Amino acid sequence: MPSSRANGGTNAATVEIPVIDLSYDPENSEISALRLVTALRPDWADPDAKVEFKRFTEGITNTLLKSVNKRKGASKESIDNEAILLRAYGHGTDVLIDRQRETQNHELLMQHGLAPELLARFSNGMMYRYLRGTVTTPNDLRKAPVYLAVARRLAQWHATMPCVPNPSAMSNGVAGSTNGTTPSSAMVAPNKPPPNVWTVMQKWLHALPQKTEKEQSRQKELQEEFSWLVEELSQRPGLGANGLVFAHCDLLCGNVIIETKAASSPATAEESVAFIDYEYATPSPAAFDLANHFAEWGGFECDYNVLPARTQRREFIAEYIRAYFAQLSNRPADVNVDREVDRMCQEVDVYRGLPGFYWGIWALIQATISQIDFNYAEYAEVRLGEYWAWKAEHTGQRKEKGEDLPLREKRWAEERA
């Protein structure tokens, strides 16, 4: 996806984001998209305007369109600089995502120069500035110059973005439904202020279908597993206040943009990346954000053969730790970088099964609400299978039963690619 650098400054959070009283209609995609972009940019409705749309298909939840005005005589660079990304939310995804919180996240990221300018919201989506660059593929994520750039940018997120709970969601210590929680999911993990990745998962578990006896049994089983996970993982030590950092939580290839280098950049200049789509961003253990990204090296096909081996994970984590402590405003004076790298490698190993649980319950919900042509039910079983394989290894059950290592666990244990 060719991208321009994040166009947020210190005033970004004080700018009121326009709300357009229109919606995107997937059945009349181009017509409804044109109405939205011309409402934002009335001059694009002029007779000499030539508005075109390009659909991106890297995601499996939302519709993402790039809109450009190919004005006569305009250069490709100037056209891209004026381009707009239109993102329409997937059908029914409000049960999964707090859209108000997503907008707050985007505005806060703008303020820190970590997100493109949010131009407008509409009833079922938003429009923001196009980032000049290239959308990564799973293969790109596995290239050292790219994954080291991802490590540096992720460290910047974790070191500089505050984990600020939404005060309006708190009442007598109980979180309301705005912040990705329900009253019964507030403070799921002791001493972890909501919202966070634990309250998000609890909300999703409440949203699982329970119409049939089979669905009720599945929901109960997963709720029991979640309670065990909270007890097992939530109080582990980690980076950030309360062991939480502001995490992206969805660093798949379609959300990582390799930024276009300036013409004056030396040929040896490091790659630079930007992240887009912040709908799942929430305070989380840093190890979960890293483990979740490593899982995306295999793409939606979940190709376990290409997941990062130990040496690759350590190289990524070493770059991440160096960048994290270099940008941390209250860096301790006695930081031992090597020890922190060792610690984070261990934590990511522990958290490697949680992304499978997270996306597994997400996919079970999507299977009941989504209108996108994707087999969410099958995807849910694949991802939950990752979780069960990790748990069997974590608890020693696999060895007790004398079973072979599953492919994903075998790959994770390999030393080199």
From TrEMBL:
Which species is this record about?
Answer: Apiospora kogelbergensis
Which one of the record's GO molecular function terms can you name? ethanolamine kinase activity
- Homology family: Belongs to the choline/ethanolamine kinase family.
User: EC number(s) for this protein?
Assistant: 2.7.1.82
Entries under PANTHER family matching the protein = CHOLINE/ETHANOALAMINE KINASE, ETHANOLAMINE KINASE
Q: Which domain of life is it from?
A: Eukaryota
Q: What Gene3D superfamilies does the entry give?
A: 3.90.1200.10
Q: Report the protein name in the record.
A: ethanolamine kinase
Matching Pfam families, A to Z? Choline_kinase
Part of which pathway? Phospholipid metabolism; phosphatidylethanolamine biosynthesis; phosphatidylethanolamine from ethanolamine: step 1/3
Alphabetical GO biological process terms: phosphatidylethanolamine biosynthetic process
Q: Name one GO cellular component term.
A: cytoplasm
Q: Spell out the InterPro entries in the cross-references.
A: Kinase-like_dom_sf
Q: Which keywords belong to this entry?
A: Kinase, Transferase
